Amino acid sequence: MKTADAVVIGGGIMGASAAHFLAKKGFGRVVLLEKGRLAGVSTGHSAANVRTYYSNPITLELAKRALHMFENDREALGGDCGFRPVGFLLLIDEGSRAAGEHILKSERRHGIEVERLTPEEVGEIAPQLSLDHVEYGILEPRSGYADPVKTTEALVEAGRAWGLELRIGVAATGIRCRGGRIVAVETEDGTIATNVVVNAAGPWAGRVGAWLGLKYSLRRSRESDLFVELPPGFGPLPVVSDPRLRFYLRPQGDRIMVGLGAPKEIEPVDPDDCDPALDPATRDRIERALFGRIPSLASARHLGGYASIYTITDDWHPIVGPEPAIEGCHAFLGGSGHGFKLAPPIGEALADVICGEDPAIDLSPLRPSRFIDGHPLTSAWGEGNRG
Ligand SMILES: Cc1cc2nc3c(=O)[nH]c(=O)nc-3n(C[C@H](O)[C@H](O)[C@H](O)COP(=O)(O)OP(=O)(O)OC[C@H]3O[C@@H](n4cnc5c(N)ncnc54)[C@H](O)[C@@H]3O)c2cc1C
User: Fold this and answer.
1) CATH code for the domain of 239
2) Atom 3 (ligand 1): residue with closest C-alpha?
């Protein structure tokens, strides 16, 4: 039987972050199991927006740390993560006024750089937008977006030097426990003796938890994005989030990626049978929202799109931390549609917890038991992935 100091199940951004930071701390041999491709599921399809407009203290602190990490990706994340600090602009209308004020105050209280823009100032930085119903803008000048695949690969590649071992195409098939303690992970390629396991299996995390009798309340929802070619001379855009028309866009060279924003319906999906194609009805909803805000793009070329998966917890925040009933078992799951940017700082703090140290950011508000304790997280935005 092979042995490892820790086994991480799932090679998305969450598993890669946990494995990277555990290895970096000198935990020893850290095996990262990925049954398919690295970043092949939710992570690889992520818009990978890196923004800080959160409304509760833990997520604000994590997002602030995340922005610092992406700005310093080579040192903090092990390599080039394709981070583009194009700015992040929130368009505040009457319906989002209260949340907007809360966000401005919260970001400033946490020392995050943020600006309140008049509609005229919004028009200056994004003249392509129609500003109907926009009362003001919130601009995070340092935010932007990253490349989710490059980020995951950078974390794994850098981790190899410290003992991270990636096993691609190898599924975990079970977890063995003795006397309330993890003793091994079973895989398609044999058993690995270990006392530490991290469940970062994304849409399959509920299934992995069930091997140990753990129940996570997770919904898996189909989530789509599409691409639109920008006409020549269109000019630069920041990432834009539009709560009124319920969509977001982010630039990417000569195109923009566009998706629906919260609140949106849950579209239940089986992760073993998720059609990756963008369906016509969703395309139509995304395009109607986009063309409402940028009418000049109505004749622009559609460049295709895709569908992937959100894994959503009951309060739309990740579930992270030790499972008290099973020594050595740690949850890192339920990205809830905004987990990409949060994964590196959470992975960093979780590695501290696993090593028995106090993390710089206290992860206990994300603990698995918070729902039974009656302490789910709340958001000024209400339900959804704005957090
Ligand atoms: C369309 C879309 C847009 C998004 N936009 C943003 C955004 O702008 N900003 C943001 O912060 N977040 C965003 N998110 C959310 C973010 O991408 C996710 O929260 C995050 O990628 C989840 O990472 P993960 O590692 O938990 O899951 P995944 O990336 O799904 O990885 C889980 C991995 O576990 C593997 N696995 C499962 N079971 C096993 C097993 N038994 N053995 C071995 N391997 C296993 C799977 O193959 C998979 O690769 C978006 C998500 C989507 C879908």
Assistant:
1) 3.30.9.10
2) 46
Answer yes or no: pTM beyond 0.85. yes
**158 and 212 share a domain?**
yes
CA dist 110 and 24 (Å) reads 28
pLDDT band with cut points at 50, 70 and 90 for residue 28:
very high
Q: Are both 153 and 114 inside the same structural domain?
A: no
By residue range, what is the domain housing residue 33? 2-47+148-216+315-373
Give the Å distance between the CA of 347 and the centre of ligand 1.
14
Q: Are residues 228 and 358 in the same domain?
A: no
CATH number of the domain that residue 161 is part of? 3.50.50.60
Return the best residue to mutate from 13, 46, 187 for the ligand 1 pocket (most ligand atoms within 8 A of CB). Answer: 46
- Tens of pLDDT, residues 92-123: 999 999 999 999 999 999 999 999 999 999 99
The candidate with the shortest Cα–Cα distance to 115, out of 52, 48, 50, 47, is 52
How many C-beta atoms lie closer than 10 Å to residue 170's C-beta? 18
Return d(Cα 314, Cα 211) in angstroms, integer.
21
Cα(42) to centroid(ligand 1), Å: 3
- Give the distance (Å) from ligand 1 centre to CA of residue 13: 6
Q: Of all atoms in ligand 1, which is nearest to the CA of residue 37?
A: 49
Mean pLDDT in residue range 281-304: 97
How many other CB atoms are found less than 10 A from the CB of residue 98? Answer: 12
Ligand 1 atom nearest the C-alpha of 38 is: 49
Asked whether 312 and 264 are in contact (CB, 8 A), the reply is no
User: 382 lies in a domain?
Assistant: no
Distance between CA 68 and CA 373 in Å, rounded?
A: 32
pLDDT band at 142 (very low <50, low <70, confident <90, very high): very high
Question: Ligand 1 pocket by C-beta < 6 Å: which residues?
Answer: 9-15, 33-36, 40-43, 45-49, 171-172, 200-204, 208, 223, 225, 259, 308-310, 333, 335, 337-341
> Can you tell me the distance from the alpha carbon of 338 to that of 195, in angstroms, rounded to the nearest whole number?
30
* Ligand 1 nearest atom to the CA of residue 49, by list position: 8
State pLDDT tens for residues 320-364. 999 999 999 999 999 999 999 999 999 999 999 999 999 999 999
